[in-house]
Amino acid sequence: MILDSHAHLWRKERTPQPWIDGASMAPIDRDFWLDDLHEAQREAGIDGTILVQSANSASETIDLLALAADPGVRGVVGWIDLTADVASQLERVRQAPGGDHLVGIRHLAHQDPDDHWLRRTDVGTGLEALAEAGLVFDLVVRPDQLADAAAVVAEHPAVAFVLDHLGKPPIAGGDLADWAAGLRGVASSPNVHTKLSGLVIEADWSSWSIDELREPVELALEVFGPSRLMFGSDWPLTQVTGGLASWTDAAHHLTSGLSQSERDDIFGRTAAAVYNPLSAPRKD
Q1: How many CA atoms lie within 13 A of 222 on its CB side?
Q2: In the structure, what pLDDT confidence band is assigned to residue 276 with cuts at 50, 70 and 90?
Q3: What is the Cα–Cα distance from 123 to 84, expressed in whole angstroms?
Q4: How far apart are CA 111 and CA 10, in angstroms?
Q5: Is residue 282 part of a domain?
Q6: 149 lies in a domain?
Q7: What residue ranges in the chain does DSSP mark as E strands?
Q8: By C-alpha distance, which of 163, 82, 169, 172 is closest to 130?
């Protein structure tokens, strides 16, 4: 079983994606919905998916949860305002169709005007409320925000965190030293897992190679270990870098030296455990 811990769906009229611009992004400058995802996953041999928000939007979260009746959708990482009343927002979301499939919350901290949004006191209060609700918090940050992320995960040991995209290593730039130090800091807290996802987006889209992905993957395996690492596609962004199957093949190659049990962790068990219980395969 391959469980994809990180895929997006959007209808641009309802959930605008203002970051999509330029000819290089033309392959993703359109709507992507379940049929598109199913087709890509069949080609890549993927069995199920955690859908992840792509905008800080309550309405998008409701739209994604409404898709949870599909047996391939194993959970939804949505959005609420962590600086407001978390409990009342979660009550409304969970009452919506598919609301019991909410498994986590994410805020686009890497795009927030406040570079230190994670360190806000009201955000910290919101994170603790997520822990009380049994929800994961997905961290999406730039390398320069990894120090804040490391501090936050250490300050909130009761919160289950997942670091998206290995903290976005600047592969195309070639200098990984600062990113590596930041990743080590985040990994030092046991309450955080990370996603083997989004790496090809950080490389040259048209000429990336497995070799240039090796260093960040090997560091992630060293500091997190396979049991704290989970595969994610970041689809449909993979459409600008060669496709979902191409990235999935690369991820298999980069982990081919591990034991079968360790690969099982990365390609399904870790995500199923972290986003438990709805990430388990359903029989309906």
Answers
A1: 11
A2: confident
A3: 9
A4: 18
A5: no
A6: yes
A7: 3-7, 48-52, 73-78, 102-107, 136-139, 161-163, 192-196, 229-231
A8: 82
- Which CATH number do you get for residue 181? 3.20.20.140
Token reading at 129? 């409320």
Find where tokens 């997942």 sit.
162
| Residue 217 and residue 201 in contact, taking contact as beta carbons nearer than 8 Å | no
Quickly tell me which residue has 């992905």 as its tokens.
213
Does this model's pTM top 0.85? My answer is yes
Alpha-helix residue ranges (DSSP H) falling in 113-192:
121-132, 146-155, 177-187
Provide the CA 96 distance to its chain's centre, in angstroms.
23
Is 123:117 a contact under the CB 8 Å cutoff? yes
pLDDT for position 10 = 97
* Domain encompassing residue 20: 3-274
Place of tokens 């990113």: 179
In a domain, 241, yes or no: yes
**What does the pLDDT look like over 109-155, one tens digit per residue?**
999 999 999 999 999 999 999 999 999 999 999 999 999 999 999 99
- The answer to whether position 284 is within a domain reads no
* Whole-angstrom distance, CA of residue 8 vs CA of residue 54: 6
Task: Pull the structure tokens for residue 161.
Answer: 């965190």
Contacts of 21-24 with C-beta under 8 Å, sequence gap 24+, read 24/205, 24/240
Side-chain-side CA neighbours of residue 176 (13 Å): 22
Q: At what angle do helices 121-132 and 146-155 cross, to 10 degrees?
A: 50
Number of domains in the chain: 1
Q: Which residue has the tokens 């438990």?
A: 276
